[in-house]
Amino acid sequence: MYPLDKLAEDAEISPERSGFPGITLAINLDSKEAVAELYKTVIEKGGKPLVEPRQTFWGGYDCYFADPDGNAWEIAWAPFWEFDEQGSLKME
């Protein structure tokens, strides 16, 4: 991750923002336990908790945190997801 003000400076744009931008970034994992473990690690390292790990209405398990620049991240697992040999989510 790169600080917003430095990235904005590099792109020669203003770093000023306000409110929810309408997107979240996602980390998709292969188990509920991995979701809870990564969330715990992120919070211990300074991430801001937004939503504690929980069962979802769509049958999965997720949580949300904000990084130091305020970007919202989701960490998620779903029982119907498949991952390839490299650990990437298959998008078929």
From TrEMBL:
Record-annotated VOC domain positions: 1-78
Protein name (Swiss-Prot/TrEMBL): VOC family protein
InterPro entries in the record: Glyas_Bleomycin-R_OHBP_Dase, Glyas_Fos-R_dOase_dom, VOC_core
A Pfam family: Glyoxalase
Domain of life according to the entry: Bacteria
